[in-house]
Write a structure and sequence with these properties.
Blueprint: E1 23-26, E2 31-34, E3 37-38, H1 39-45, H2 48-57, H3 63-75, H4 81-90, H5 96-110, H6 119-144, H7 158-167, H8 173-185, H9 193-203, H10 208-219, H11 227-238, H12 244-253, H13 271-283, H14 289-306, H15 323-329, H16 337-358
Antiparallel strand pairs: 1-2, 2-3
The structure holds acetyl coenzyme *A.
């Protein structure tokens, strides 16, 4: 009996797979909320550490709770010697996201809660990974630049310490502030590809490190987190603002994707991109020539893509588009952009994994087989 082909939602587009109270992405109106707080409110009033607490605990902390949480984060920054060695040895040839993926996998060997998948252990591992992923990213930056590892400073806040470990000097307060906002804006985004892959791994009752390793591997791709680095490469390839039209027209005519534009859920301006663009414009006066040039190219490209060169529908910038010039202004190399994205997204990944495990059901979708059946097996010597 022939069965009608089911409706296929390619790329799981439009499919709800679970309920969640963590994050609302309103793709029509371009709004984003973490536990009900708008991203604009959080970017204006909160900070990355407080947002980590919010995502992991579902509520904003009281003063004493935040202070204890900060101490906890600061106490988990150190990396095992073996992981530092691996980073140093891999750093010359390996991609920074591959180093991070391997480091997180390796961190599981040394985790004191390894083998314990209880809710309490998962919470401890989440806090530890928030601290350690930032340390791995900074250590990778140092190693790739041929510089010595810098020990964390427990007196500094999370982002301040990250910049300190990366540059070996106490960072400027305005650099800490802008990077803290970047971390906060990237901290969470519902069931995006990397979060989903982390949840899929966790749904088999594997463990937190395996799930986060999956998520990092997924974030790496240029259609997802890797777009931030790719967007900067494009701006560099454009070179001058006056070349932008030519470059974009050519790329679209060749059916190429313009990195940092478009989104599966937002069909309007990504609110995170709007905030980053605002910060970039504020930085323009104090920025150096290279960053001002990149910003001018980015603004030209944005205008062209939104108007889609007069075609039927525009394509809006996403969170990855304006990040490159901001990170460049902070002196951060392009290969660290996506690891920094991972260091920012880890609270969101962990929050979703822990939430899903509360009502866990193995994730196992179907594919519709459209090949032949009942083929005759021909022995190898007769083929
Ligand atoms: N450049 C050129 N055209 C684009 C782009 C782009 N960046 N994004 C979408 N389009 C066009 C498509 O060609 C298509 O046009 P059509 O309707 O005329 O055929 C239309 O917009 C819809 O595109 P889809 O591929 O159906 O959109 P989808 O939801 O599958 O894609 C995606 C989302 C993968 C992010 C896509 O926009 C893309 O490839 N963007 C570039 C990579 C990128 O910036 N990724 C980061 C996303 S944000 C994040 O993950 C953190």
């Amino acid at each position: 009996m022939m069965v009608d082909a089911p409706k296929i939602n390619q790329g799981l587009e439009g499919i709800y797979f679970t309920e969640s109270g963590i994050c609302k992405v309103d793709g029509i109106n371009g709004r984003l909320y973490y536990y009900g707080y708008s991203i604009e409110t959080l970017a204006e009033n909160s900070n990355f550490e407080e947002v980590c607490y919010l995502l992991l605990n579902g509520k904003l902390p009281k003063k004493s709770e935040l202070s204890a949480f900060r101490k906890n984060l600061a106490s988990e920054r150190e990396l095992p010697e073996e992981v530092i060695m691996m980073i140093k040895r891999a750093s010359k040839k390996a991609n920074a996201m591959d180093i991070l993926r391997s480091a997180v996998s390796m961190l599981s060997f040394f985790d004191e809660d390894s083998g314990d998948n209880s809710e309490a252990a998962n919470m401890r591992k989440s806090v530890r990974l928030i601290s350690q992923i930032a340390s791995v990213t900074a250590a990778t930056g140092r190693a790739k630049a041929g510089k010595a590892y810098v020990e964390p400073d427990p007196k500094m806040n999370h982002v301040e310490n990250f910049l300190y470990m990366l540059n070996g000097a106490k960072p400027e307060p305005d650099h800490v502030k802008i990077l803290d906002t970047m971390f906060l804006l990237h901290a969470e985004h519902s069931s995006n590809a990397s979060t989903f892959s982390g949840i899929v791994t966790a749904s088999t009752l594997s463990d937190m490190h395996s799930a986060i390793t999956s998520a990092i591997g997924t974030l790496k791709g240029p259609l997802h987190g890797g777009a931030d680095e790719a967007a900067l490469h494009m701006m560099n390839a454009i070179g001058k603002p006056e070349n932008t039209v030519h470059y974009i027209v050519d790329a679209l005519a060749g059916k190429k994707r313009i990195m940092g534009f478009g989104h599966r859920v937002y069909k309007t301006y990504d609110p995170r991109a709007r905030i980053i663009k605002g910060r970039l414009e504020e930085m323009q006066n104090s920025a150096d020539k290279e960053v001002r040039n990149l910003t001018n190219i980015a603004l030209q490209a944005e205008k062209l893509m939104i108007n889609k060169l007069g075609k039927s529908h525009g394509i809006w910038p996403n969170v990855d588009f304006f990040s490159g010039p901001v990170y460049t202004d902070l002196g951060i190399e392009d290969y660290l952009f996506t690891p920094i994205f991972a260091a920012s997204r880890i609270p969101g990944w962990a929050a979703h994994i822990m939430e899903y495990l509360k009502g866990n059901r193995l994730i196992r979708p179907l594919e519709y087989y459209d090949g032949a059946i009942g083929k005759k097996y021909v022995p190898i010597k007769e083929r």
